[in-house]
Design goal:
The complex is a heterotrimer of chains A (about 300), B (about 350) and C (about 375).
Chain A (H helix, E strand, L loop, with lengths): L1 H27 L7 H19 L2 H25 L4 H25 L16 E3 L9 H5 L1 E3 H19 L1 H11 L1 H6 L4 H28 L10 H11 L4 H23 L6 H19 L18
Antiparallel strand pairs in A: 1-2
Helix pairs in contact in A: 1-6, 1-7, 1-9, 1-10, 1-11, 2-3, 2-4, 2-9, 2-10, 3-9, 6-7, 7-9, 10-11, 11-12
Chain B lengths: L4 H32 L4 H13 L2 H25 L8 H18 L5 H30 L3 H23 L29 H18 L1 H11 L1 H6 L4 H28 L10 H11 L4 H24 L4 H24 L4
Chain C lengths: L3 E4 L2 E4 L3 H23 L11 E5 L9 H16 L2 E5 L7 H10 L4 E4 L5 H10 L4 E5 L12 E4 L9 H17 L4 E6 L4 H21 L3 E7 L6 H13 L4 E5 L2 H13 L3 E4 L12 E4 L4 H14 L11 H4 L16 H16 L14 E3 L2
Parallel strand pairs in C: 3-4, 3-5, 5-6, 6-7, 8-9, 8-10, 10-11, 11-12
Antiparallel strand pairs in C: 1-2, 9-13
Helix pairs in contact in C: 2-9, 3-4, 5-6, 5-11, 7-8
Classes of the chains: A mainly alpha (about 300), B mainly alpha (about 350), C alpha/beta (about 375).
């Protein structure tokens, strides 16, 4: 029982973690992207399209990431080149991509229903048990019995942490968000760094969306993202822009979500809406208890203009 | 003293230019997208215009949407002047709605002249109270208000669902009883849904304008937003300003809830706001964070949403296109700003 | 001479007032042209055709409620030759305007397909007596009769609302009959009346079978909180399976799809579909599906409007005469259902139809079932 609960926690945390990490990079470079939901939706539908037409799940994942990346390019163009207000662009992106583009693409390719068979249903990534490791009692079953995308999370987090804190690129990203003027003076191209960060965020959102559609469901459903983008946004701040801490936040949120489901199943007589409130309340409480001041990048959300 | 005619024409031109250039941009980009996806851009765009402004009924529908967008826009505006970013307008709206319905159904039906102001006050207080939470967490504990206000959105929405399905359900449908007719806001275009909530919205914008132009409070809020450190040094109680600004904002969102309940739905139900507050944020930003500008930008967004939604019926264009065009138009309205500035006309 | 060019990542523009004027003129021409073009599009002559419209809360390819009504519209178009239209993603906030819009466009029958829109439909009915509005559950609790409002229920049957819990009653028997672990599960989106009636009817049917066969039976239950969150449906089913369930009954659109995927991933778990004919999604996993013949409702109502007899349907009780239509389509039931079980269910069906059994219509959720003989 507990094992399944913990496995479910990891499953639910994965897409949140992916989207939030990308967003963290973006925000560290000074760009806030509120359009996570929309990018995830486009990623989800592209992944299904890719997997359906090539018959290969990895191509689907790749297409999802590419689609997210393209939206990232658009976002970067609007915010970094045109200096448009980042908040509105994000909101517009959600409307444009989430409820608009993703559905338009889906219906264009797969028709408008009428018969169920029209919809592509793909056999998604199956769970793989890692031999030996998954035999470890309890821990083995919790950690080593997932689909491959979940396993990839571990190397990704490690890479993200290393890049952010140990490489020049990571340093550039962080400095550009805090003090773009100084960075420029030191020879770092603010524009280029922000473009890279935003495109990266788009790719990660695409990946998160692809996870949702490919890892469990095997198809695209309008409205399937269900607001996870906003949760991811909160997790970025919760985790203080640090991928490892974001992981903790994602697990916390996923865990409470998985918990409230099981509480319901046990038939406890609390109206279920209150159980649904748990993840949000607990996240806030944890934030309150655990936070030293979470300092955002100094120039977050402020367009960088060369002549200033 | 007369204004030189040249001066006023230039102002007019430059003010109109932004929406005009934006429409041009949007038309171009949107048309390409729409063509690729197999629909007719001319028909689509024309039906947006006729769908939002083409008849008295359509205009009234646009006005109905303007009210909540305007009020939630002002909600975001007032706090953002102090550099406090309240993205919790949705939750604050629902809190206002819940409070109003509970009050309206509990109190004996009073005459409108008393009832409506009381309900407005209750709605305002409810929204302000809900906004107080992220406010105090920011002021006392330095917890980032963006995350708290977003997370707190979900609670009133879930609470609403509980109330309409369970605690306050009347009959078989998931909704509460109807509020007494003296609690309903008067409809000012008969035969339509356009209600007096719009006047509440415009009045709020005017009040905010006066606050920011003429009062010490407004000055202090703006000073805090400019440079909190300098403001503190100048003797402004910055923490209090954070709280006041976010609470006023929450109250305005609560008024949006009042508008939706007393003006449109007359009962509490799930889904009374399909995300108005997000358009509100966009409207505030587009209105250059100016209360009066926000009135215009709210109108613009309301027209956009109304027109785009009616494309399904007017042009047979599916609603997903409506959202696509909305997104493109919003971006282009932004882009039009920049473009006009680059052209040296502002 | 470039109008705009990129310089070090910045956009610069050759600026003159002439460009501005040109832009304004261009836009005005285009906008006016577009409107003129649209307005002068050859208008279809006012046909004598009856016009039917549906206000859908969701999207037409959700494999559930909305898709069923979309299909029904197509059926009406083919069989009755009516003109149809639909609007998707109609929110509670917008519905009022949409009803008015359809009424002004001269639609004769307008379907309100979500609870939250009912008020708006009734209000529009007042102002537009020429159009008939179909409102869910209308008349069940003594609403005053109106000439142009008709009531319908989700899954009609001999008496208002009877269809839902009866269909689920049969599903419950089926579930209890099929389960090998003795644990079954049911989930829905939220405790709205039909969902609760579904779940309760299911539990009653399952308990009946368990009592008859002296078998221990547990029925888990849960509300997911949304109609479309596929992933949440998936996770719910996983938690059911984790608790030992091997048969799931789900009521919802996207969420039932998620449940089906979870059952598939696990293997050895079966599903009864509760949101229209879902068997085609996966005939192996889905052993049967409750189908509430929405096209039939559509046809009955449309014909009534065409014949001018719509006013007779002023409350849902008219559906009594139409007879039950909540049954399981036996052509569509999986082979794993033994013939004994089939007979048992067919008997139950008979009893329901002739009134021998009455399954109560329950509107408040009761605790999960836990039966030991």
């Amino acid at each position: 029982m507990i094992i399944e609960f913990l496995r479910a926690t990891i499953r639910m945390a994965t897409p949140l973690m992916l989207a939030a990490s990308g967003e963290a990079y973006d925000e560290l470079a000074g760009v806030i992207n509120l359009g996570i939901d929309g990018m995830m939706a486009v990623g989800a539908v592209s992944a299904v399209i890719g997997a359906y037409f090539t018959g290969n799940l990895w191509m689907g994942l790749l297409l999802g990431m590419v689609a997210g990346g393209l939206l990232g390019v658009l976002m970067a163009f609007l915010t970094t080149t045109l200096h448009l207000d980042q908040v509105i662009c994000g909101i517009a992106m959600n409307i444009l991509a989430g409820t608009g583009l993703s559905v338009v693409i889906y219906r264009r390719l797969f028709g408008t229903g009428g018969i169920v068979i029209d919809s592509p249903v793909i056999v998604g990534f199956a769970d793989i048990s890692i031999p030996l490791l998954s035999d470890i009692p309890i821990i083995g079953q919790i950690l080593f019995n997932h689909n491959i995308l979940v396993y990839l999370m571990l190397p990704i987090i490690i890479i993200l942490m290393i890049v952010l804190y140990k490489t020049t690129i990571g340093l550039n990203i962080r400095s550009v968000g805090d003090n773009p003027l100084a960075s420029e003076g030191l020879g770092v191209s603010v524009v280029r760094t922000r473009y890279l960060a935003t495109i990266f965020a788009g790719i990660m959102c695409g990946w998160a969306g692809a996870y949702l559609s490919l890892a469990e469901i095997g198809t695209f459903f309008e409205g399937m993202i269900a607001g996870r983008g906003w949760i991811a946004l909160s997790l970025v701040i919760f985790g203080q822009w640090n991928p490892l801490k974001i992981l903790v936040g994602a697990l916390l949120f996923g865990g409470v979500n998985a918990l409230q489901m099981r509480i319901q199943v046990m038939g406890i007589a609390i109206p279920y809406q209150f159980l649904l409130m748990l993840p949000y309340i607990l996240t806030i409480i944890t934030l309150v208890i655990g936070t030293r001041r979470a300092r955002p990048p100094a120039k977050l959300g402020i367009p960088y203009k060369k002549e200033e | 003293m007369t204004l030189s005619p040249l001066f006023s024409v230039k102002i007019l031109l430059s003010k109109l230019l932004v929406p005009i250039v934006s429409v041009l941009l949007a038309f171009g980009i949107g048309a390409i997208c729409i063509l690729i996806c197999g629909a007719n851009p001319l028909v689509a765009y024309a039906s947006i215009i006729t769908g939002s402004l083409g008849s008295v009924t359509r205009i009234s529908e646009t006005l109905v949407k303007t009210t909540p967008i305007l009020l939630t826009g002002l909600c975001f505006l007032v706090a953002s002047k102090a550099k406090v970013f309240n993205i919790g307008g949705e939750g604050q709206l629902y809190m206002g709605a819940i409070a109003v319905v509970v009050t309206a159904l509990t109190l004996p039906p009073l005459p409108s002249i008393l009832f409506i102001p009381i309900l407005m006050l209750i709605g305002f207080l409810a929204g302000a109270t809900w906004a107080f939470i992220p406010g105090i967490l920011k002021a006392k504990l330095r917890v980032n208000e963006i995350i708290t206000s977003v997370l707190l959105n979900y609670i009133p929405i879930l609470l609403t669902e509980y109330l309409v399905l369970d605690a306050m359900r009347e009959g078989i449908l998931p909704q509460t009883a109807m509020i007494p007719s003296s609690a309903k806001l008067p409809i000012f275009i008969s035969g339509t849904r356009a209600h007096a909530g719009l006047l509440i919205g415009i009045a709020s914008a005017l009040v905010l304008y006066i606050i920011f132009e003429k009062t010490v409070l407004g000055y202090e809020i703006e000073a805090t937003g400019e440079n909190a450190g300098a403001a503190t040094a100048a003797g402004i109680k910055v923490n209090n300003i954070f709280l006041i600004s976010i609470c006023i904002g929450g109250g305005l969102a609560g008024l949006a809830g009042v508008g939706e309940i007393c003006g449109v739905q007359w009962r509490l139900k799930s889904g009374i706001s399909p995300g108005y507050s997000f358009y509100g944020v966009a409207a505030a930003l587009l209105g250059k964070n100016h209360p009066l500008g926000t009135i215009l930008s709210s109108l613009l967004f309301a027209a956009l949403i109304t027109g785009a939604e009616s494309m399904q019926r007017g042009a047979g264009v599916p609603i997903s296109f409506a959202y696509l065009i909305q997104g493109i138009l919003i971006i282009c309205v932004l882009g039009g700003e920049i473009l006009t500035r680059k052209m040296g006309l502002r | 001479m470039f109008l705009l060019f990129l310089d070090n990542g910045e956009i610069k523009m050759a600026s003159t007032k002439t460009w501005a004027l040109l832009a304004i003129v261009l836009v005005v021409i285009i906008v006016v042209g577009a409107v003129v073009y649209y307005v002068t599009l050859p208008v279809e002559p006012e046909t004598e055709k009856t016009k039917v419209a549906c206000l859908l809360p969701g999207s037409i390819n959700d494999h559930g409620w909305n898709q069923a009504w979309f299909t029904a519209l197509q059926v009406a178009e083919t069989e009755l030759g009516v003109e149809t239209a639909y609007s998707e993603a109609v929110t509670v906030a917008d519905a009022g305007g949409v009803f008015i819009d359809y009424a002004q466009r001269g639609f004769d029958l307008i379907w309100c397909l979500d609870f939250g829109m009912s008020d708006a439909a009734i209000a529009a009915a007042e102002d537009y007596p020429e159009s008939t509005f179909a409102v869910p559950w209308y008349g069940v609790h003594g609403e005053p009769p109106k000439e142009n409002i008709v009531g319908y229920v989700q899954g009609e049957g001999p008496t208002p609302g009877k269809g839902i819990q009866d269909a689920s009653y049969l599903a419950g028997i089926l579930a209890a009959g099929l389960t090998e672990s003795g644990i079954i599960g049911v989930y829905g989106a939220m405790p709205a009346i039909p969902v609760v009636a579904f779940m309760e009817g299911f539990k009653i049917g399952a308990k009946t079978y368990a009592e008859e066969n002296s078998m221990a039976l547990k029925c888990l239950q849960q509300f997911v909180g949304a109609w479309e969150d596929v992933s949440a449906g998936y996770e719910t089913t996983v938690s059911f399976i984790d608790a030992g369930a091997d048969l799931i009954y789900c009521i919802g659109d996207g969420i039932s799809f998620g449940g089906i995927m979870a059952a598939k991933a696990e293997g050895g778990v079966y599903v009864i579909g509760g949101a229209g004919d879902q068997r085609p999604i996966d005939p192996e996993i889905i052993v049967a599906s409750i189908d509430y013949d929405i096209p039939k409702e559509m046809l009955i109502m449309t014909e009534a409007v065409m014949n001018g007899t719509a006013a007779e349907w002023g409350s849902t009780s008219k559906w009594v005469e139409v007879g039950g239509n909540f049954l399981i389509d036996w052509d569509e039931v999986s082979d794993i259902v033994s013939s004994d079980l089939r007979t048992r269910i067919e008997d139950a069906q008979e009893d329901l139809l002739d009134g021998t059994i009455e399954v109560p219509f329950i509107t408040e959720i009761t605790p999960p079932l836990d039966y030991t003989p």
